[in-house]
Amino acid sequence: MSLTIAAADKILSDNFAPWVLALGLTVEEAGEAHAVLRLPWTEELAREGGGLSGQALMAAADTATVIAVSSARGGFVPMTTVQQSTTFQRAVVGADVLVDARITKLGKRMAFAEVTMAAEGSAEVAARASTVYALLG
To answer: How confident is the model at residue 137, as a pLDDT?
Structure first.
């Protein structure tokens, strides 16, 4: 029941606030219980010291979860974040980030996911997030 990349990108462009779209996120992969998004490196998203800002990583994890849930359900339904807990393990400097959201439980009204974020080409995780969503539709 997963989405095509084109369908997942359309969900992204049709359902997110302009400031989220300004992050430049693109869908790399959408599967039965996961999605991988690319957060492109830009100086505008860097904080003092040159590392990618935590706010950008958290927004990317939140967005990737919506795409993963939509892919698992076969389409978008209204949903809202109930909880997100993020840990930052290393800085990302000068590289795109691959944001991999994996659904751990999908119910009728709730969805749970684990998200890993790593600089492209690196096996080391830069950040992890645990997300919970209420499905409204």
So the answer is: 77
> Could you tell me the pTM of the whole model?
0.95
Q: Which of 37, 50, 51 is nearest to 100 (CA)?
A: 37
If DSSP codes are grouped into helix, strand and coil, which group holds residue 124? coil
**DSSP of 52-120:** BPHHHHHHHHHHHHHHHHHHHHTS---EEEEEEEEEE-S---SS-EEEEEEEEEE-SSEEEEEEEEEET
**97-106 and 79-88 beta bridge pairing:** unpaired
Phi, psi of 25 (to 5 degrees): -60, 140
Q: Phi first, then psi: what are they for 75, rounded to 5°?
A: 165, 165
* Residue that wins the pLDDT comparison between 24 and 50: 24
* CA pair distance 68, 65, nearest whole angstrom: 5
Percent of the chain scored above 70 by pLDDT?
99
* Mean predicted confidence (pLDDT) in 86-112: 97
